[in-house]
Design brief:
Elements lengths: L3 E11 L5 E11 L3 E5 L6 H8 L7 E6 L2 E2 L4 H10 E4 L12 H11 L4 H15 L14 H13 L5 E5 L7 H16 L3 E5 L3 H7 L2 E6 L2 E6 L1 H4 L3 H6 L6 H11 L13 H7 L1
Length: 275
Amino acid sequence: MSSSILEAEDIIFSYPDGTKALDGLSISIEDGKKVAILGANGAGKSTLFLHFNGILQPDQGSIKFKGETVKYNKRALKELRKNVGIVFQDPDMQLFSSSVFQEISFGPLNLGLSEEEVRARVNEAMEVTGITELKDRPTHLLSYGQKKRISIADILAMKPQAIIFDEPTVWLDPRHSNEIIDFFDEINNQGITVILSTHDVNLAYSWADYVYIFAEGKIIGEGIPSDIFQDKELLMNADLTQPWIVEVYNELVQKNILASDFPIPNSKRELFSLL
């Protein structure tokens, strides 16, 4: 049986200016999976993430972590944030310490760990993200890509059970985007649930185990990528397009170059193997 690590049940949330960001939204994230959430700006993706981490509290409804309803006292929120980390779209929102080592050590120190354990976690997180050589550098003098990796190391050092990435490839060049996605696969292989929001339908299609489509604070579609990205009406309602692999596959089927019973390829490599 599958088990959910994070759930939202009938969440309603409005910002102080009256903007309704979540409108009766319910979602269940399966433990250990790679999940992509797509939708236009303002669809409610980032607001949901802030609920999953306890930064925001719903006006109505409830959030659950591993089947237990989230409580909003200091002790419960500390435990939640230890297990559910968020990497924000803009790393400058997350980084504030004077050096890279100090930045990454902040979270583990707040867990009350020994100096030896903190140092071990920081070194491991830097090694995994490939930033060991930056450990003594001032965070504010680094490139955007380097800051992005540091913000990820920040969360990894906490050893969470789930990591949420808000638009992780924005402003990254293709090479660094591919490196980041490969890294997501690596941490997912360690048993960590990886959730990301993205506007990149090609990324969501080839990477995710499961996809959710958001619009106006609600989920308007969900399923495995090969099903979701064949639903043109759904994609149109969410202002999304089909991934290029799906478009090419459909064209090849229409021209009788491929039989319609061939499964839709998941990657460029799989597509080329069919030709």
